[in-house]
Design a protein that fits this description.
The complex is a heterotrimer. Chain A is of the alpha/beta class. Chain A is about 40% helix and about 15% strand. Chain A has 16 helices and eleven strands. Chain C has one domain. The chains are: A alpha/beta, B alpha+beta, C alpha+beta. Bound molecules: magnesium ion and zinc ion. The site of zinc ion (ZN) has 3 residues of chain B, from loops. The site of magnesium ion has 2 residues of chain B, from loops.
């Protein structure tokens, strides 16, 4: 049995054609069948039935009653352990529930499990997790593909129909890129719109929660429920959250769509550019006006990001020291010994690499040359978008430089891996919202995503345009 | 007073700067809403934020910002309308986040100054570099277990104001006066409880020595001293040590030192990190702190009379000496007590010096004997005022007054009631006093003869005996006159 | 070459990550190539550009001075790998 959307399932529930328990049974069965994809770090039937008992009692007015949701294992959850995909958070059981997951619980959603991710969200293929690689559900037998990352488990969970929505976090593309790889919708909203409280931090000035879903409408329903002001997060924004799904409007007449010339990059396959071209044409046909724009500092976004994110991470991950929670090395002879052993045993290679880079760029004598310089370039990148949005309402670009790549593709060159984020990172640095929706396929039949960006807090227009484009493939 | 120390070949000058850590008086911590109460059970006042649980974020305490601004005003300092919280990164067991949130490039308070007063009536201005807000660390206990260090995070995250002085201090006494002055300003402002024993106020002392006129020498920092006595001891020891090293042809290594209170010596700290590199950077979990003029003006309205203003008032209105006034005002509680006494009766303003003496000698000794702070004195200011007034009006003598004071302490009653009940009112009636004197003369005929034959010293004997007969109540002046008169009549 | 074996070990020490010789060599190579790559930022003229630390446009949220956290020490210590008598316990520090 496959449910196509939240509203469809909600209708069945309201008409008593299905019970919450039956929904649980359906999804538990599916998850067990797809066990080999290694999508979940934590999956426990009993915990799902515990929720069923509570959800059955609540009113059907709750917009997400009984809706199966998978949670990226970066969100702290009270009833399920939280690992951030790392050995260093082995056996960590939060005594608290993250802001975002609590809001979803409040609306009656049912958490089916905690999804795999790159360790501490650092990666683009969900292959740096301590709990193994996740396999893209679109893979052909015998040639497993990467689901993208870092929220690869969540993207895969939606793609494999193991839930109707999955939370993700996006620091430099970690929602949009896996959404593109797995052929699902993924939105990273404006920085500050969803509280970071209770989400394991990677890079505080960039981290933003978002959602994966099967379609744009569901994403708009879920985002409304996740977003909101939180006094416990000093960077949380106090803005009114519109009822996105009710406001959905496919009329794009007169909307100006910016096409940044810097996003045409050497070495990107023609297929990607063709899909981009098709989307441009479609928007034009729907009445939108195409503007050719320039975001002159685009080229510098990746190096800027790969200074700022590791710098913040090196400090954010200092708390994993084996004292308060998580893994602690045995037989340490001194405190420093314990720190060094715990952290070298607890962290994987990519995390160590980023901590080392971050430590270096903040260290005495290098701060100005690297960190401060990156913050200044970040300002220029953010300003590029401010200027651009004076000329257009939305920006349309490809989401990722390729379709899903083979899981075993050698990733020994970190810079090559970092290039996965080339189209997503600029928006992260600017804190603006961006969505990826599946739009066409490559010659191997793998989905390709296109990305829509807009100015701060303009998620509604993003949803509208995405909703209109989505119709092209219905 | 010369600040120079005689050396083998030339004089030495000491250069001292202080970093004072003052705990902000607030109900909850700087970035979390757990309690700041001292002395609770281990880890019972620790929020998820204080324990650096994954995903926890700091949210600043508005009141702590106001307290810092208030203190800035009290230190005559520049209030910075824009300041930034930075992370100071290092690993230690009692630092759960792996960084301390502090302020580095842009502190909330900039340059200021305070005045210290010397016994000889002179004073000196000490410049303040800055004041910034930061988190306190937790507490490590090294002696509870043979193989482990215990960590208590109750103090973790409590708000501190770090007040940094210029190296304007030249000896231990100046350093002592400076920290007392800061402490008293904070207590007047009610921004810190000033309790050094509980660690609410502690100081890092930077010391170097130089040949007068030379550049600053290499300095050493003595960490975390929590009493004025230890600060002075540590400075004196360290200055001597540095001069010895230099005079023996050695050089001073820039070092962080610990002061051992039992040996009175300083020794280098086992280095926490081989090379300190704190990698300060703006905390991305917090936005810049902006304060507008209106907020500053509102806070200024809350500033009470501060020690210097009060000192000036005492000198101008009560004619106290600069030094007396500075001693009295250095402790707000004492000074408040004094003010209440003076205000309790209009006539006392003229006898302020007597009031000071009664507070600083008689009242203090009785409070000290009973281990009481002035704030808990059973003798209320208005009653002490009444007592001084009774002396002034010759109702009782100063000697009787001391007796009355003890009774006031024990019963907390009004001195007039004590005097009435115990019949301690001074005898001024000459007939009554003559009767006592006559008795004494009658009983000591031989002495009278000796006196009359020129032994003038015996006058005291007759006064004493007569006073005894009056049970101390005779007015001493009248008594003296009568004795002289009577004995001269015998001629 | 930005880093050498010496500096990578110094950085690792600061970050409290122990590296084997092999790891140090690998990281040295990776990190140097990453640092060379980010060097392209030097092409950008950033004179008179204010560094951007946070893109949030709102003002700093401020809390009232109230005690609201009422976590028991059991809750705080619950996940600790070593706790004794209500304290977190770590290998003994000799000061
Ligand atoms: Mg210091
Ligand atoms: Zn400090």
């Amino acid at each position: 049995m496959e449910f196509q959307s939240i509203s469809q399932l909600k209708l069945l529930l309201d008409d008593n054609k299905i019970s919450v328990k039956e929904i649980a049974q359906t999804y538990i069965k599916k998850i067990k069948e797809k066990k080999d994809l290694n999508i979940f770090i934590y999956f426990n039937e009993d915990k799902i039935y515990d929720q069923v008992k509570l959800i059955e009692k609540i009113s059907n007015d709750n917009s997400l009653k009984g809706i199966p949701i998978a949670v990226k294992d970066l969100f702290c959850t009270k009833n399920m352990p939280t690992t951030a995909g790392s050995k260093i958070l082995e056996n960590f059981n939060p005594t608290y529930e993250s802001f975002v997951t609590q809001k979803l619980i409040n609306q009656g959603s049912m958490f089916v499990g905690k999804t795999n991710l790159d360790e501490f969200a650092m990666g683009s293929a969900t292959n740096t997790s301590y709990f193994g690689d996740t396999i893209n559900p679109l893979s052909n037998e015998g040639s497993p593909l990467a689901p993208g990352g870092s929220s690869g488990g969540s993207a895969a969970a939606v793609a494999a129909d193991l839930c109707l929505g999955a939370t993700g976090t996006d620091t430099g593309g970690s929602i949009r890129q896996p959404a593109s790889f797995c052929g699902v919708v993924g939105i990273k909203p404006t920085y500050g719109i969803c509280s970071r409280w209770g989400i394991v931090a990677f890079a505080s000035s960039l981290d933003q929660a978002g959602i994966f879903s099967k379609n744009v409408t569901d994403a708009s329903i879920l985002l409304k429920e996740m977003a909101g002001h939180d006094l416990r997060d000093s960077t949380s924004s106090n803005v009114k959250i519109p009822n996105f799904s009710e406001n959905l409007n496919i009329d794009l007449k007169g909307k100006k769509i910016g096409i940044p010339k810097e996003y045409t990059i050497d070495g990107i396959s023609d297929e990607i550019n063709e899909v981009w071209e098709q989307a441009i044409k479609s928007l034009e046909q729907k009445g939108a006006i195409i503007e050719h724009i320039s975001l002159p500092h685009t080229k510098y976004a990746l190096p800027t990001y790969y200074i700022i994110a590791p710098a913040e991470a090196s400090s954010n991950l200092a708390r994993y020291d084996g004292v308060k929670y998580g893994h602690r090395a045995e037989n340490a002879k001194s405190l420093d010994d314990m720190y060094e052993l715990t952290r070298s045993e607890g962290f994987g290679k990519e995390v160590k690499r980023r901590i080392l880079i971050g430590t270096y760029v903040l260290s005495a004598g290098y701060y100005d040359a690297y960190y401060l310089k990156a913050q200044k370039v970040r300002k220029l990148i953010a300003d590029d978008f401010v200027k651009a949005f004076k000329e257009c309402d939305l920006i349309l670009t490809p989401t990722a430089p390729s379709a899903a790549f083979p899981l075993n593709e050698k990733q020994d060159d970190p810079i090559k891996m970092y290039l996965n984020d080339v189209f997503t990172v600029p928006a992260s640095l600017a804190g603006i919202p961006g969505i990826s929706i599946p739009y066409g396929k490559d010659k191997n039949g793998l989905p390709l995503g296109i990305q829509l960006l807009s100015k701060h807090f303009n998620e509604q227009e993003i949803f509208n345009a995405a909703f209109a484009l989505e119709k092209d493939y219905e | 007073m010369s600040n120079l120390i005689k050396g083998k070949h030339h004089d030495w000058e000491t250069v001292i700067g202080l970093e004072i850590h003052a705990q902000v008086k607030s109900n909850s911590k700087l970035f979390s809403s757990s309690s700041t109460t001292f002395g609770s059970n281990p880890n019972s006042q620790v929020s998820l934020v204080d324990a650096a649980m994954p995903g926890m974020l700091p949210v600043i305490n508005k009141y702590c910002i106001e307290q810092a601004v208030k203190t800035g005003v009290g230190l005559n300092a520049k209030i910075n309308k824009y300041s930034i919280f930075d992370r100071k990164n290092y690993f230690y067991a009692d630092l759960p986040q792996g960084y301390q949130i502090s302020q580095y490039k842009y502190p909330i308070i900039g340059e200021g100054k305070v005045t210290i007063d010397f016994k000889d009536g002179s004073s000196k201005e000490i410049r303040i570099v800055r004041l910034h807000l930061e988190q306190d660390a937790g507490k490590s206990l090294h002696d509870q277990n043979p193989t482990k260090t215990y960590v208590d995070l109750n103090r973790s995250g409590v708000a501190l104001m770090e007040i940094v002085s210029e190296p304007d201090l030249r000896n231990a006494d100046e350093a002592g006066l400076y920290i007392s002055k800061i402490r008293s300003i904070l207590m007047y402002l009610d921004t810190c409880d000033g309790n050094m024993q509980e660690g609410s106020l502690r100081a890092d002392v930077n010391i170097s020595v130089r040949k007068p006129g030379d550049e600053y020498g290499t300095r050493c920092e003595i960490k975390n001293l929590n009493s004025i006595k230890f600060i002075k001891q540590a400075i004196n020891y360290e200055v001597k040590r540095q001069i010895e090293v230099l005079e023996d042809g050695g050089s001073i290594e820039q070092n962080t030192l610990l002061f051992n209170t039992s040996t009175g010596k300083t020794k280098p700290m086992r280095s926490k990190e081989e090379a300190h590199d704190y990698r300060y950077f703006p905390d991305p979990d917090l936005l810049p702190l902006e304060i507008d003029q209106e907020e500053i003006d509102n806070i200024k309205k809350l500033i009470p009379e501060l020690p210097d203003e009060r000192k000036k008032r005492y000198v101008d209105e009560y004619n106290l000496s600069n030094y007396d006034a500075s001693v009295l005002t250095s402790d707000k509680a004492i000074s408040d007590y004094f003010d209440s006494v003076i205000k309790s009766d209009f006539s006392l303003k003229a006898s302020s010096k007597i009031v000071v003496n009664w507070i600083t000698s008689e009242l203090f000794s009785i409070l000290n004997e009973n281990n009481l702070e002035i704030i808990n004195s059973p003798i209320k200011p208005k009653d002490l005022g009444k007592l001084v007034k009774l002396i002034n009006e010759d109702i009782i003598s100063g000697k009787i007054a001391k007796e009355v004071l003890i009774e006031m302490f024990n019963t907390t009653s009004d001195p007039q009631i004590i005097i009435d009940k115990k019949g301690l009112k001074q005898v001024t009636n000459t007939d009554e006093i003559e009767a006592f004197v006559d008795e004494v003369i009658e009983e000591n005929k031989k002495m009278v003869e000796q006196y009359l034959s020129g032994k003038d010293k015996l006058l005291g004997f007759f006064v004493g005996q007569s006073m005894k007969k009056s049970k101390g109540k005779a007015n001493p002046q009248i008594l003296n006159e009568i004795i002289k008169k009577k004995l001269s009549k015998k001629n | 070459m930005k880093l050498n074996t010496n500096t990578i070990n110094k950085i690792a020490k600061l970050a409290r990550i122990r590296l084997s010789e092999k790891e140090a060599d690998e990281f040295l190579k990776d990190i140097n190539s990453i640092l060379d790559w980010v060097e392209q930022l030097n092409e950008v003229n950033t004179d008179n550009v204010e560094p951007l630390t946070n893109i949030s446009s709102s003002a700093l949220t401020k809390r009232r001075d109230e005690n609201q956290d009422i976590n028991s020490s059991d809750e705080i210590l619950q996940n600790s790998p070593d706790k004794l008598e209500g304290y977190f316990a770590v290998p003994k520090v000799v000061e």
